[in-house]
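Design job #97: recover the sequence.
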């Protein structure tokens, strides 16, 4: 009986300690990690939101970039960090692609995270060089069907979100393309401008200036509806690829078993921060639809996209170590 009472007492003490820690959260510096190079799209988005959040939380938020294996090194680090809200993860939808095709990751991409909220959503846009003979998606698909494996496209490497969006197009339309990998998304546009690839799939953020200048031509966006910044560009579904939709996103997660009170505090601060006019304007200027979600909604989003890419990876026999 004494042993049982001791175990119960310890359990109660641990619960009280966790509650007390959650109630005075945060009382020290917070680390926000991401798995992509400094200065890139993910890094910029993280810094914009973190700068405002630190004001509301009353604590400094330090951004730590830990690139490697399409973001999975940073994700694994956060999964193994203390569940106290002082190590957070900022991640893009590439997280779901990595989970679907990389055998080496050591975490469950859905269940091993405490999901908090998205920050913004943005589509990809399929572009061709300004002097391309392809004026529409129909033109490109017609040529691809008649000449399988002749068209080249730029991506940020095998297994990247850029690679998989084109592979989804290939799988949906029964066409075949040759992947030309680049070190970064900006180089995809450089490849098109130099005539080294026939087309590329890029985020609106990176492609928009080149579209506006006329250096490249946008044939279609991957969102379900036309994108606000490119109202004259049709969706892939409108252009003859039914049921095609890929929407990218960015958002926050924490280690598993992070106290709900801490998650609620961070969630509330994210929602406040992205509604601040200056923050919302800066995020929107990067091509995003600024929009938060509940933790449950974000978890469901991640689960749906992992399932989508896992299905494609199996059908197209795409996998990586």
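Job complete. Output follows.
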């Amino acid at each position: 009986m004494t042993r049982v009472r001791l175990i119960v007492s310890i359990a109660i003490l641990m619960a009280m300690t966790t509650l007390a820690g959650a109630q005075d959260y945060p009382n020290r510096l917070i680390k926000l990690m991401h798995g992509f190079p400094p200065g890139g799209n993910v890094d910029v988005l993280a810094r914009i939101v973190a700068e405002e959040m630190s004001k509301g939380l009353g604590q400094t938020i330090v951004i730590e970039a830990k690139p490697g294996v399409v973001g999975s090194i940073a994700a694994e680090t956060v999964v193994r960090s203390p569940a106290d809200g002082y190590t957070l993860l900022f991640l893009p939808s590439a997280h779901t692609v990595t989970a679907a095709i990389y055998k080496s990751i050591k975490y469950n991409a859905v269940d091993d995270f405490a999901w908090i909220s998205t920050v913004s959503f943005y589509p990809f846009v399929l572009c061709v060089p300004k002097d391309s003979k392809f004026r529409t998606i129909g033109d490109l698909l017609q040529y691809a069907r008649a000449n399988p494996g002749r068209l080249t496209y730029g991506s940020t490497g095998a297994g990247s979100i850029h690679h998989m969006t084109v592979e989804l197009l290939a799988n949906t339309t029964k066409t075949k393309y040759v992947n030309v990998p680049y070190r970064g998304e900006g180089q995809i546009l450089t490849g098109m401008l130099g005539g080294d690839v026939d087309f590329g799939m890029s985020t609106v953020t990176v492609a928009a200036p080149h579209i506006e200048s006329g250096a490249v031509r946008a044939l279609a966006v991957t969102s379900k509806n036309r994108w606000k910044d490119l109202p004259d560009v049709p969706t892939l579904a409108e252009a003859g690829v039914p049921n095609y939709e890929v929407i990218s996103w960015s958002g926050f997660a924490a280690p598993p078993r992070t106290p709900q009170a801490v998650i609620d505090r961070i969630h509330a601060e994210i929602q406040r921060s992205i509604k601040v006019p200056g923050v919302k304007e800066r995020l929107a200027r990067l091509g995003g639809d600024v929009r938060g979600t509940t933790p449950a909604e974000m978890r469901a989003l991640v689960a749906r996209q992992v399932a989508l890419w896992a299905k494609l990876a199996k059908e197209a026999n795409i996998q990586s170590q």
